[in-house]
Amino acid sequence: MTASRDRTNEFQSVVQLMRGRLSNGAASGAAASASEQHSQAKARLHQRSQFNQLARRVGADLKSTCAKVEKLALLAKRQSLFDDRVPEIQELTYIVRQDLNALNQAIGSLQEVSRNGQSQFQQQQQQQSRTHSNSVVLALQTQLANMSDRFRNVLETRTETLKQNAARREQFSATSSTVDLLAKPSLLAQDDELHRTSSDVAIDMSGAEANWRRQQQALLDQNEDYLNSRADTMRNIEQTMVDLGQIFQQLATIVREQDEMVQRIDASVDQTTINVEGAHAELLKFFKTVSSNRRLMLKVFGVLIVFFVLFVVFLS
Amino acid sequence: MDFTGKLIVERSQRCNRSKVREQAYICHCYIRGDYLAGICISDDEYPDRVAQTLLNNILDEFTKEYPASSWSSLQPGQVQFKQLESDLARYQDPKQADAMMRIQSEIDETKGILSQTMDSLLQRGEKLDDLVARSDALSAQSKAFYQTAKKTNRCCTLL
Fold first, then answer.
1. Are A61 and A102 in contact (CB under 8 A)?
2. CA-CA distance, A26 to A135, in Å (whole number)?
3. Which residues form a coiled coil (chain A) (predicted)?
4. Mean pLDDT for all residues in chain B
5. What is the domain extent for residue B102?
6. Phi-psi category of B23—alpha, beta or left, where left has phi over 0 and alpha has psi -120 to 50?
7. Which residues of B touch A282 (CB under 8 A)?
8. ipTM score of complex
């Protein structure tokens, strides 16, 4: 019989590891082992894997929300007078806000988990893992703070573009539409407050506040109908004016072409006048020649006399 | 009418514009951020936008005349607001009162006039074409006439 090594302990630790990975959050793992150290180690692993998974999830959510904020920034920058994508932007804003809330809550719970997990165990052995979890939570919080800062900037750029649009609309119409700016800055001011407080510490957002903000969103949409109709009318007017401009342009081109034709006509008629004048003069000369030339008369009579003489000579 | 107005204002929310159908009329309602509300009752065909613009203007003028601090001390029925009547008289015809609709109608008129102008311009072009051809022919014939006259004058020496 060969010497056998007792690897029970290793086997049991491996089993605990696998069990801890499989049944995360389930309390069934605690019942399997008897020894205090094993249960402690298992619970520790259990807590650690839970913490890690939660942190991973929070990181993934953070990344997706970051992508949404970037898209929102792009949309807000591209706002022009004709290309309004207001419902999309509002939807996106709403979604991003929800995500930020959820992330806040998740990071808060993460902190709780890490703090609770640590309090049960021997402090000395957990020093490194505690600092590790603390740094993980801190990193997630800073990322969340950066993203909420970017979100706030995007909202500010959006108000800027809206103000510019309103100013351009005022140039075209006499009525001043100052009302539409009142509601938006108030919503943004609230956003600013919220994000400023949330960027330092992960706070717990109450459900009532989120509801109230959702209501504000709905009110803003109703206001948007009136503003949208105004915007549509203004767009029509602008389009008509552009059409009018084009018509005028074509008018000018046609008139210019006709100007050339008129000049041709003018030249022809002048030429005709000259020709007719010349011919008239010639005729006058001819008439003068015919009517008052003595030479001619002499010639005519001479011819007559010659014929007469010939006639007489032939007869005699 | 008063009762309906009060009911609608109580049911509506702040910073909100709404439109309620009441038998044969439509009641436009607008509640501003500082809780000042305006109601405009009109028939079916009055454009919504113009009604809301009217409410905007009237609320602004009202605020100018009676600042917000004096609202709690005003008694209903005692408030004199002369501009209301003149505004109402003006807004009877939405096409004239609302700047945007006025501009729209004027622009449409201008467009019609411009298309007429284009037509007459094209006719003018045709006539000018005709004139060009005829004046060319005239010039050629007068030239021939001149040549003939010259020739006639020259050969008088024959005879």
1. yes
2. 26
3. none
4. 84
5. 1-121
6. left
7. 146, 149-150, 152-153
8. 0.71
